[in-house]
Design brief:
alpha/beta, 3-stranded antiparallel beta sheet, 8 strands, 50% helix, 15% strand, globular, binds adenosine-5'-diphosphate
């Protein structure tokens, strides 16, 4: 089973992807987390990606595609994966379709949140230093670890650029997957657990 979560930065893809993956026994594959792991390890890919990520630009397709396709070919992903942050361009979507062949993606879940909410949500976003789970500063960190940090690209200027990049490069995927009959729209402004239920109901 392969599920793609689509939606603007701050829509809650990371939060929801973790719940859905846990509940369905799938792996959570977040392209942003994978890129940040590469950066932390100082790999060539991580160093190359850094300059793009800092300004909120997209990392070149070929780098991201190779990284994600490698990850979903690993043994723990054989049962399936929840993709979060990938695909983000039409080239990525078409390459993924080509790679999957007939089996294809099962569902594309679009988490919709109006732009006005997003900037504030992202400004308040903190991540667990260990598992990258997002929390607002006033939430209890209930992932079993300690320590939160703010992503560099969650600071104001990069956020505005990321929203623009989403509009211009990623939002065309909505129509792309609609035409394939795979898209389900979910209201992302509801409480976290309501959104999780809506997502799980959408794939029944
Ligand atoms: P968010 O969903 O909050 O924007 P992510 O953690 O998914 O954050 O992504 C952070 C950054 O990593 C992006 O702004 C971009 O630079 C890079 N990135 C992540 N996924 C992709 C992708 N599929 N294609 C290109 N760049 C990506």
């Amino acid at each position: 089973m392969l599920i793609v979560l689509l939606g603007p930065p701050g829509a809650g893809k990371g939060t929801q992807a973790k719940y859905i993956a846990e509940s369905l026994g799938l792996v959570h594959v977040a392209s942003g987390d994978l890129l940040r792991e590469h950066q932390a390890k100082g790999t060539d890919l991580g160093n190359e990606a850094k300059t793009y990520m800092e300004t909120g630009a997209l990392v070149p397709d070929d780098l991201v595609i190779r990284m994600v396709l490698d990850r979903i070919s690993e043994e723990d992903a054989l049962k399936g994966a929840v993709l979060d942050g990938f695909p983000r361009t039409e080239v990525q979507a078409k390459t993924l379709d080509g790679h999957l062949g007939e089996s294809g993606i099962d569902f594309v879940l679009l988490i919709e949140v109006p732009n006005g909410h997003l900037v504030e949500r992202i400004a308040n976003r903190r991540l667990c230093e260990t598992c990258q789970r997002p929390f607002a500063p006033w939430e209890t960190q209930n992932c079993g670890h300690e320590g939160l940090y703010q992503r560099d690209d969650d600071k104001a200027e990069a956020v505005i650029n990321r929203l623009k990049v989403y509009e211009s490069q990623t939002s065309p995927l909505i129509e792309y997957y609609q035409l394939q009959g795979k898209l389900k729209n979910i209201d992302g402004t509801n409480e976290i657990n309501v959104v999780t239920n809506d997502l799980l109901n959408a794939i029944k």
